[in-house]
Amino acid sequence: MARVLPLLEPAHLDRDFDYLVPPEFDSDAQPGVRVRVRFSGRLIDGYILERLEKTSHTGKLVRLDRVVSPEKVLTPEILRLVTAVAARYAGTRADVLRLAIPPRHAKVESEGATPKPATPKKRRGKAATAKAVAAEPAPIDLDDPADPIQDSAPDQHDALPETAPAAVESPDTGITEQPTTAVALEELSPAASVSDVVEGDAEPNPGLVEDVAGQEVSELYPEWGRYAHGHSFLGAVAAGRGPRAAWQALPGEDWARRLAELAATTVGSGRSAILMVPDQRDLDRVLAECVALVGESAVGLAAGLGPSARYRRWLAALRGTARVVVGTRSSVFAPVKDLGLIAIWDDGDDTYAEPRSPYPHAREVAMLRAHETGAAFVAAGFARTAEVQAIVESGWAHDLLAERSLLRQVMPRLIAPGDTDAALERDPMARAIRIPAAAFMAARRALAAGEPVLVQVPRRGYIPALSCSKCRTPARCRHCNGPLALPDNNIRASTAGKATTARGTAAASDAGRGAGRGTTSDQRGASPASRVRAASQGASGAQDRGPQQSGEYEQQGLNFENDWGAPGPGAQGRDGGARPRGSGGRGNTTAWAQPDDRGASGAWSDPGDRGVSGGRAAAGGWGDPGDRGSSGGRTDAGDRAAAGGWGNPGRDGGGRGHGTGAQARGARDRVDLGVAVGVGTPRGGAEMAHSPACRWCGITEAAFRCGACGSRALRAVVIGAARTAEELGRAFPGVPVRGSGGSAVLSSVPEGAQVVVSTIGAEPSVPGGYSVAMLLDGWALLGREDLRAAEDAMRRWMSAAALVRPGGQVIVMADPALATVQAFLRWDPVGHAQFELGERIDVRFPPAVRLAAIDGTADSIAELLTEAKLPDMVEVLGPVPLPPGARKPFSSGDSPAEVERMILRVDRSAGSSLSKALSIAQAVRSTHKSDDPLRVQIDPVDIG
Q1: DSSP annotation of 469
Q2: DSSP-based three-state secondary structure for 40
Q3: Which of 315, 314, 409, 455 has the alpha carbon at shortest distance from 803?
Q4: What's the alpha-carbon Rg for the chain, to the nearest Å?
Q5: Residue 703's pLDDT is what?
């Protein structure tokens, strides 16, 4: 007989069943193999948990239908981990097993060998040869009566090893504090050698030991000496112990190499290591370093691999050939032998949160596995989350930090415009405009010196979000209620020969020879819209090579506003070029003048109230260069131009003036841009829409009207990376502009003068580091209605700033009075994490408490809570509407109009009881065969 766990979806069927084993399957039907069993008339996949001599079942037993494969894919360790994760997240073991074990690939499994691991840039491994046959693993015995995870769910704060003293709940914080069982790093000798620690039962990697035998850890990896107790931590790992640490990497640190050194130390002690990273780009980088240190025993594991490649590498870990696994969130379940280290880089990244039931977080699963196996654990990153700070304060992990004196030597200079009274006196509009004078001049100096500049933008696209100009209500589609946006392809169209005013056309024409010499930039890395608007071959004044598009927006009375100083460049002619007057809509409506066949280089024509030249007609605009335009400074546009407008350099140079900016409003500038609502036909005959379009259904909104106030005027909520790249291409003529984000993420860029415009998380590296980094639109990150908005902004900024060379300059465009900005300027991730944790303790949010979010209809939520026997002192919050942007727990066909969220909150000491109560309630509810889907999430990343 065999005890089988069928992979059944209903929660009440998450239990074991006994089956008869036919004689022909007796040798293959071992614990851990896949089988097919008949259940309620259907064939179901399952796993054998153990073999039995007898059963307590009094009825008739059904025979196994077949053994799918003799490969023992479910190891005892993974089974215990799966059980713990299911209990922790109020889910079923079947759901967790689907996340832990990839689908079988029969051809790969039949090869019976582990191939040579592919290089980091290759996604698929090569076929194995007969000479690479792996040794048969030892028989698996799942009948372990000492399993500590049978009756209760472990918790990283309240579940301790048997030898540990009892945990004590802190009355001040509400977090269960426990005496640490981690290795005391200061007590370990940093002079431990590899030859000393590989003695005993564990067998080291022969090649590695041959190279480093007799060498001390401090000699092998001296860079770890920059961190307090860094070599002691390595010595503990090499000695086979299980230290746990929160490592904050220094700016500019080769963190991939440091993680690979940790893995190599673990492999040298005869154990295996798992390194988790957020995405494929980081995976390739870390895997390359691991291959350089441990060779073929390192493999990459990610969901993006093909079925055969992924299963082949997973089998390599199962069979013990791969000792280092580098992967994304699913690699936390990798079945490596003798796990000695599990490390996670940048645990605050939202990709670590599993979007499938039971919605576990890779960091929490890693801590559960490290606690259960006694392996070393490292949470690494430039920033620190409140969750990691909580385990440090509880004593479960230790800090691994560098001294402040060393930090000051390697960090760039961090500034926020207007952070002092002196800075505000020099530039009163520093906090009001999108790119202030200090940032512009720093970038200009770096480019002149042939050094790269990084520009981080929170959103991709052109103008990805719109709202009503009058009441600020987000602009929504009338068909699907999706958000309206202006894609880059909607902005480039214009009507050939049909200028809004005669003056607009004249201005574009008069700017031909002058503007054409000064505004062209290398568009090889720029957005498509930026390339379309280039009209000459460089800043040296090359002649036109053919006719160009001409014209402006055709306005129909709608206005487009922007409250923070979105650029609205003005065209200048050879004689200084007065701007054309506006027509249609508001007086300061902006329209574009595309280059005509006389060589106008895409200069913008801003139809202003009085047509002021060279600066902004409304706040925040970029003035394009003319033949005699002012050089690189502000153009004195009088008090009708908003303050802070920049005139780009022209051929004849010039000085710097200051526009007084009567139109600047408080902390943000305003510029009205005309939103065309018809269809323009550029020279060439192609029709292109001029109206905002829905980001969900793609339908063009030709006649927007606000549903709240009836206004037809629109404003930009945020400017995307595509438009930012266009503006910077005009601001720095002759300089390459490269874009990184979306589907075109750059891993690295070459050295040299260039502007790299990147969305958050897609910043490419450059040899030697960037000279200047501009972090734009800080308010967009900090102003999100999210519990983790400040934490996420800090993490994004630090990741970008770490790419800047020591002594470089990082300018963050955010309010310097905010605590998050101040922590960033000090480079104090630990202090910020302490502040965030304290704030969450005060308001009782994770990680200070255990929280469950229940999403569904009012009836389904009420049914679940009726069946649940919740622990005492549970707080019930809600119901409230599902947060905007949250995925509904329904398919598109049966989604109701109203989906609610109920939140249950308890102290961490009662977290296991809450999860168990919800699991039982879901099992009872599933017996009722309710048609309304329901979703239960424990400690979700997005609370609302």
Answers
A1: T
A2: coil
A3: 455
A4: 31
A5: 85
Per DSSP, helices labelled H in 8-120 are 76-88, 93-100, 106-111
Q: How far is CA 463 from CA 215, 234, 380, 471, 777, in A?
A: 57, 49, 35, 19, 13
Confidence of residue 631 (pLDDT cuts 50, 70, 90): very low
- Whether 666 shows a pLDDT value over 50: the answer reads no
pLDDT above 50: residue 919 = yes
> One-letter amino acid identity for 795?
R
Mapping DSSP onto H, E and C, the string for 378-397 reads EEEECCCCHHHHHHHHCCCC
The per-residue b/e assignment along 642-681, b for 16 or more CB within 10 angstroms, e otherwise, is bbbbbbbbbbeebeebbbbbebbeeebbbbbbbbbbeebb
User: In whole angstroms, what is the distance from residue 40 CA to residue 60 CA?
Assistant: 14
Q: Which of 204, 284, 285 is nearest to 237 (CA)?
A: 204
Confidence at 505, pLDDT banded by 50, 70, 90: very low
Residues 6+ apart with CB under 8 A from 893: none
- Element at 725 (helix H, strand E): helix 721-731
Note the pLDDT of residue 427.
Answer: 79
Averaged pLDDT, 194-222: 50
Instruction: Tell me how crowded residue 75 is: count the other CB atoms within 10 A of its CB.
Output: 18
Strands (E) located in 332-486: 339-345, 376-381, 398-400, 413-415, 452-457, 465-468, 484-485
Place of tokens 């190599």: 264
Q: Which residues, 6+ apart, have CB-to-CB distance to 892 below 8 Å?
A: none
Whole-model pTM above 0.85? no
Q: Work out the angle between the directed axes of helices 255-268 and 230-238 (0-180°, nearest 10).
A: 30
Among the listed residues 328, 307, 330, 217, the one whose alpha carbon sits nearest the alpha carbon of residue 269: 217
| Residue 443: predicted pLDDT | 95
Per-residue pLDDT tens for 237-286?
Answer: 999 999 999 999 999 999 999 999 999 999 999 999 999 999 999 999 99
pLDDT in tens, 400-423: 999 999 999 999 999 999 877 787
Query: Is the model's pLDDT at 807 over the cut of 70?
Result: yes
Q: Which residues are CB-neighbours of 342 under 8 A, at least 6 positions away? A: 273, 274, 276, 332, 366, 369, 370, 375, 376, 377, 378
Q: Closest Cα to residue 811, out of 422, 450, 429, 418? A: 418
Q: How confident is the model at residue 812 (pLDDT cuts 50, 70, 90)?
A: very high
Beta-carbon contacts of residue 5 (< 8 Å; ≥ 6 apart): 16, 17, 46, 47, 49, 93, 94, 97
Cis ω for the linkage preceding 358 (within 30 of 0): yes
Q: Please, how many CA atoms are within 13 Å of residue 100, restricted to the half-sphere of its CB? A: 30
Number of Cβ atoms within 10 Å of the Cβ of 31: 21
Query: Closest Cα partner for 768 from 372, 268, 254, 300?
Result: 254
Share of the chain above pLDDT 70, in %: 67
Please name the residues in contact with 931: beta carbons below 8 A apart, sequence gap of 6 or more: none
